[in-house]
Amino acid sequence: MVVVISAKFEFTNVKCVPYDLKFNDFEHCYLKSVNRTYKYVSLKCRLFQTPVTKVRLSLFKRFNGYRPFMYNVSVDVCKFQLNRNVNPIMKFFYDVVAPYSNINHTCPFNEDLVFEKLPIDFLNHRFTDVLPFPEGDYLVETNWIAYDITRAVVKFYGTLS
């Protein structure tokens, strides 16, 4: 007898918060559910000043509120773009969003940051097959930092069942 166990990742929400409207603002930031099987995230951050120099990525899991879980890493964006193998955790998350964004170029980031139609199917494969995570509710929080000041926070909420 063969038992097949399958997991499924699903977006539940996305929130984009600009901290300095003189530095940046979000033109759009949403989770779109086209039908029961196709959801995607899109966001566009307009940069009024440049460059974004650092990104901090934190992973949280829900245990009576969201608690830190496994990862809390910061990278210098320019150094990371020169050698992505330096930080394997950030590389894993970068590989998730890179095909659907304009962040896959060298420094400086002096144009609007865009994530366009990041589909759930692609994330489902990454979080269940490539690097399996335990079931639960998750929050991936990204802090976008320039001149040592957090300029924006983007929060991706999801469930792995």
TrEMBL record:
Highest taxon, organism lineage: Eukaryota
Cited InterPro entries: DUF1091 (IPR010512)
Protein name: Uncharacterized protein
UniProt source species: Drosophila kikkawai (Fruit fly)
Lineage: Eukaryota, Metazoa, Ecdysozoa, Arthropoda, Hexapoda
